[in-house]
Write a structure and sequence with these properties.
Elements: E1 6-10, H1 15-26, E2 30-35, H2 41-48, E3 57-61, H3 71-74, E4 79-82, H4 100-118, E5 123-129, E6 146-147, H5 164-182, E7 193-199, E8 201-203, H6 213-217, H7 219-222, H8 225-238, E9 241-245, H9 246-258, E10 264-265, E11 271-273, H10 275-285, E12 304-305, H11 309-312, H12 321-334
Parallel strand pairs: 1-2, 1-4, 2-3, 4-5, 5-7, 6-12, 7-10, 8-9
Antiparallel strand pairs: 9-11
Helix pairs in contact: 1-9, 4-5
Length: 338
């Protein structure tokens, strides 16, 4: 593939989007990338400065709050990576939608329909989140024994009332993923193949100069309360924390494009570890830092990570938990965060 194939990446200036574009360009693909604002010189400049960008990268302005804007970017492409997502709904940012979930679902629906209308798109690959795959029982009272692709986070308001931000994110990612999967198995899809990749907490390096989920991975060292709260939230929702390297995430996306026949849901994480195991790693290998101490809950059920679907298709992860956490430290040092 590669040479001559045209693909689209929504959310091109984000953490995953920019790394994915870099890899696609290196493989010879022509990339249509969408950004919310083409007048943002730092984001446009970053993408235009990538190796092989000249003549191979075309930028389009499109906002998830105005989903019909994505048509020109998708037209003529064979594959679409829908990476963009509204992270938090800002009142006044749109009169159309009442919350993040409504905006995310509308954007996903519109992009799927653009793929169908294009007449050229073979497969839509959606960047989902593991927050949609909590191994909670339907009433939220307890955990199941395993976490795999059959797990769907129960959407009961009462389970997430303590934090509206996390509730909005869980509801938007879960509802959007279910919606986009419906295009792969119903007549509205017009033959469109759909793959969703619920990704774990992404760590490693970055092309960006701004914080990303990588910061959450080192929250126990940098004493960032908001990032640490996200870590605790993930462990509470999922039993442990699924970790994945940015390089593996993007390779998994490309694998799901280049594999001849693939549809459905594939959890994407190479490791499944507790906050205590993360703290132990940092304390052992980085004694120069003060590591936030964890109170291990002895009653917590030992949930197993049982997702093997991606590897059964032939995908191989290159990074284990130690490598991911070590790369987060390296990156933070390079950027002056440590």
């Amino acid at each position: 593939m590669g040479e001559g194939s045209k693909v689209c990446v929504t959310g091109g200036s984000g953490y995953i989007g920019s790394w994915l574009i870099n890899k696609l360009l290196a493989k010879g693909y022509t990339v249509h990338a969408t950004l919310r604002d083409l007048k943002n010189e730092s984001k446009v400049g970053l993408l235009k400065s990538l190796p092989h960008a000249e003549g191979k990268l075309v930028l389009f302005e499109a906002d998830i709050y105005n989903p019909t804007q994505f048509d020109p970017a998708i037209q003529g492409c064979e594959y679409v990576f829908h990476v963009a997502t509204p992270l938090a709904h800002e009142p006044g940012s749109s009169q159309q939608y009442k919350d993040t979930t409504e905006a995310a679902v509308a954007g996903t629906k519109s992009i799927a329909m653009s793929c169908v209308r294009s007449g050229t798109v073979k497969r839509l690959i959606y960047t989902a989140s593991v927050v949609s795959a909590a191994p909670l029982k339907e009433d939220g009272s307890d955990f199941k024994d395993v976490m795999d692709e059959t797990c769907w986070t129960p959407l009961h308001d009462s389970l997430y009332l303590h934090d509206p931000f996390y509730k909005d994110y869980i509801f938007s990612k879960t509802t959007s993923e279910k919606h986009v999967l419906s295009y792969g198995n119903d007549e509205n899809g017009g033959g469109l193949e759909v793959v969703t990749l619920p990704c774990g907490l992404v760590g490693g390096d970055t092309l960006l100069s701004t914080p990303s989920t990588r910061t959450v991975c080192i929250a126990q060292i940098v004493q960032n309360e908001r990032a640490y709260k996200s870590l605790k939230f993930l462990e509470g929702l999922l039993g442990k924390i699924p970790l994945v390297h940015i390089d593996d995430v993007c390779d998994a996306h490309i694998f799901c494009m280049e594999t001849p026949s693939i549809t459905g849901r594939f959890l994407c994480a190479s490791s499944y570890i507790s906050l205590q195991e993360m703290a132990n790693h940092y304390a052992l290998y980085y004694p120069e830092f003060t590591v936030k101490q964890e109170n291990e809950d002895g009653e917590r059920k030992d949930i197993k990570w049982s997702s093997t679907k991606l590897c059964e298709k032939g995908f191989v992860y290159k990074y284990d938990a130690k490598m991911i956490l070590d790369d987060c430290i390296k990156c933070a040092r390079r950027m002056g965060e440590l």
